[in-house]
Amino acid sequence: MQENTYRLLTENMGISAHVLDIVDRAEKDISSSFEKLDDITAYNQYKVLDAFQKNNISDTHFAWNTGYGYDDAGRDAVERVYADIFHTDAALVRPLIVNGTHALTLTLTGILRPGDEMIYCTGGPYDTLEDVIGIRGEGKGSLKEFGITYKQVELTPDGKIDLDALKAAISPATRMVCMQRSTGYGWRRAISIDDIAECVQTVKSVNSEIICMADNCYGEFLDTMEPTDVGVDVMAGSLIKNPGGGLALAGGYIVGRSDLIESISYRMTSPGIGGECGLTFGQTRTMLQGLFMAPKVVNGAVKGAVLCARVYEILGFDVCPSSNDSRSDIIQSVKLGSPERIIAFCKGIQAAAPVDSFVTPVPWDMPGYESQVIMAAGAFVQGSSIELSADAPIREPYIVYFQGGLTYEHSKFGVIKSMQALLDEKLISFE
């Protein structure tokens, strides 16, 4: 660390020299892995650029319509670019899709019909989807209420998709097999592209008509391929995660086969209207600019996750994935072992933010979650988890989930402040 930076952090920002020493040691340990991450970023940056150029993006696409949004050239251009980047027939990319859960809900409800069966083959879905599916909650218009049945196939002990169990679970009623790429609130590595490819091949070998769906939240641009490159039929994610690049103000995307996207569009608006309507409210500029910057932003976030892993390994905590593991999402899990450590960690992340750094995060009963949740995020875009953030359900074994950072330096500072907060509250020791 340069002398001027060291002095700024210690003298002006109150960071312990011991904390900085551990971060310096961690960076030396992981420096070789950064070169591979940079190669992935370069590929994805040029892939995105190629899609922009192929679709002749111009400043006319930054204008916007009113009312119904008929013939919105900018909206259509955004969706063509997304379809090209993810190598699919069609896409829906809308600011009115409020988050990843909404994008996934539209996908499920747009395709599945009464009597259909869906299978989650990556264990339990993310907490907010439990109400959507009908695992918990009553009277909320869940899939269960509409006669759609649900099966769940647990991962193997080493975190892989259990292909034998999946084949056994498939029945004549199975219409869709779903994969959640990211860890969610689990303790596992994210599902790799190779694992997704093998899963798709297995499902299609049983019944080629079964639709394979991927929840790609937190996974975009982590590899040179995406789930749709290895046979996934439809995929959904959030614009305030990876593909928005920190600039998209809201929204979600769904990409896939044209017939599936059409069915989903009818659920998004209404039958007969589909994707032909829907105002973009002048957001096409930030959606496109954020997408263009996304590969580099994701690079900074994943480097920060690797650093977080190595720092907390040095401190003696269990982490998932390890600092040496390959990555398939931007999330770093740290098993802190107590609610006090979780709260202190999140306080440190909040104190590292450019926005609302003075706020103290506390656990609360967040809608859609079974346990109290603490969330730390001082973001330019509310809820943006491509920006530096951390969150955790307050339940055993007390795991915190760290992600984001629009630059590596900011993600690194989040790691520094989390460690400093734990030190200040005497919840860790360097002795």
What is the element string, with H for helices and E for strands? Answer: HHHEHEHEHEHEEEHHEEHEEEH
* Low-confidence sequence ranges: none
Per the principal axes of the C-alpha atoms, what is the gross shape?
Answer: globular
Straight-line distance between termini:
23 Å
Fraction of residues in H or I helices? 25-40%
Which structural class do you get from the secondary structure elements? alpha/beta
Let me know the largest β-sheet: 7 strands, mixed
Count helical runs: 11
Radius of gyration: 21 Å
Strand order of the largest sheet: 1-7-6-5-4-2-3
Strand segment count: 12
Portion of residues in beta strands equals: 5-15%
On the 0 to 100 scale, the average pLDDT is 95
